[in-house]
Design goal:
This protein has 396 residues and is an alpha/beta fold. The protein is 38% helix and 14% strand. Helix 5 packs across helix 10. Bound molecules: pyridoxal-5'-phosphate (PLP). It catalyses: L-homocysteine + H2O = 2-oxobutanoate + hydrogen sulfide + NH4(+) + H(+); L-methionine + H2O = methanethiol + 2-oxobutanoate + NH4(+).
């Protein structure tokens, strides 16, 4: 999309308008939701051609969509908008973040090989999927970018990393990671940053993956996933989505697409709150450590501070309270925060990764039992700080 003088639209404008270019011609102002599970076929030949195209990764916007599992116009709108925000040729949307990861791993296996190099820490579900080898992949786990080059093999189909990482907000230098991966394509889980703060493809990353359940939806009422990539990857991923039945539901796609309109605003406002909460926690008695990329000393590479990679530190943070008992007392003692897994919603959430999101991770890579992960929402930061203060004080 461009402005009237042909300049490319800025991210905030794309967030509001992308995927809605045909609204005026359609005479609508809000996204139409197409719930059809099947579509009328103009003829056997046209239907058959469309089926073939859909099942092999093609786009069905100009013909019958045949069947919702192959293609859906509401899902395609969200994909088009999301690709624009990530600066990608294509995006492919799924029923969840894990369904997205499953399809990408399967595509990488087909395209290049079944070996995966995974940089820890990763989201617990991703770590679990790789560690079990459920999809026939073999994974070499590494703990630092410096170990990646030696772990890559001729049959490495994918190098996987997450930044900022879940749950303790470690930052990965994407340019260094891409250089270390060499020929092997890199996938980055961009869930915590969103395209508002970080666009991995600009740093040479091949695939930027999201649990859209988090910031993209933004209101805790939709489950979805999406991956932004080039045309060739999309061609490989779409048939797998069609065959395994992992496409996003049209109503979910509608909610994800709507979420994009306020994404820049929410991300920046939640980030401003998180900065204040992190600073208050860093000064609070009873907190051993605060993990937040916006705090001094948390970003030695200048990835955030110097804007080399991120436009800001985001709104996820973690605190270390030392022991399981104190972490439990705080998670159960907060009143304004909701004690729940997930993140990126307009309301603030708190949870203990060791028992919940990172439970399936191998013990040596699991976060300590004293660590709590906080997702900061849009409440007034002073109310959030007061809530944490009372819970930490009662935890003793
Ligand atoms: C939640 C999450 C996932 C998994 O996404 P689902 O939508 O729950 O399947 C993957 N990565 C990160 C960083 C997440 O937070």
């Amino acid at each position: 999309m461009t402005t009237s003088n042909d300049a490319p639209l800025r991210l905030d404008s794309l967030a509001v308008h992308a995927g809605r270019e045909d609204f005026e011609a359609l005479g609508v102002h809000a996204t139409p939701i197409d719930l059809s599970s099947t579509y009328p076929l103009p003829s056997i030949d046209i239907g058959g051609d469309a089926y073939e195209r859909g099942a092999t990764g093609g786009d069905l916007h100009d013909t019958t969509a045949v069947y919702q599992r192959l293609w859906n116009p509401t899902v395609a709108r969200f994909e088009q908008a999301f690709a624009a925000l990530e600066g990608a040729e294509q995006a492919v949307a799924f029923a969840s973040g894990m369904a997205t990861t499953t399809a990408v791993l399967t595509a990488a296996k087909q395209r290049r090989g079944s070996h995966v190099v995974a940089l820890r820490p990763l989201y617990g579900g991703t770590d679990h999927l790789l560690a079990t080898g459920l999809l026939g992949t073999e994974t070499t786990f590494v703990d630092a970018v410096e170990q990646v080059a030696a772990a890559v093999r001729p049959d490495t189909g994918l190098v996987i990393a997450e930044t900022p990482a879940n749950p303790t907000l470690e930052l990965v230098d994407l340019a260094a990671l891409v250089a270390a991966a060499g020929e092997a394509p890199v996938l980055v889980d961009n869930t915590f940053a969103t395209p508002v703060l970080q666009r991995p493809l600009e740093h040479g990353v091949a695939l930027s993956l999201h649990s859209a359940t988090k910031y993209i939806g933004g209101h805790g009422d939709v489950m979805g996933g999406v991956v932004a990539c080039d045309e060739a990857w999309a061609q490989a991923i779409r048939p797998i989505r069609a065959i395994t039945g992992a496409i996003a539901h049209p109503f979910s796609a509608y909610l994800m697409h709507r979420g994009l309109q306020t994404l820049p605003l929410r991300v920046r406002a939640q980030q401003a709150n998180a900065q204040q909460v992190a600073e208050a926690l860093a000064a609070m008695a009873g907190v051993d450590r605060v993990h937040y990329p916006g705090l001094e000393g948390s970003d030695p590479g200048g990835l955030v501070g110097e804007g080399r990679q991120m436009a800001g530190p985001g709104s996820m943070l973690a605190i270390d309270l030392g022991t399981h008992a104190r972490a439990a007392a705080v998670a159960e003692g907060v009143r304004l925060f909701t004690h729940a897994v997930s993140l990126g919603s307009v309301d603030s959430l708190i949870q203990q990764p060791a028992s919940l999101t990172h439970r399936p991770v191998a013990p040596e890579a699991r976060p300590g039992a004293g660590v709590l992960r906080l997702s900061i929402g849009l409440e007034h930061p002073a109310d959030l700080v007061a809530d944490l203060e009372q819970a930490i004080a009662s935890a003793g």
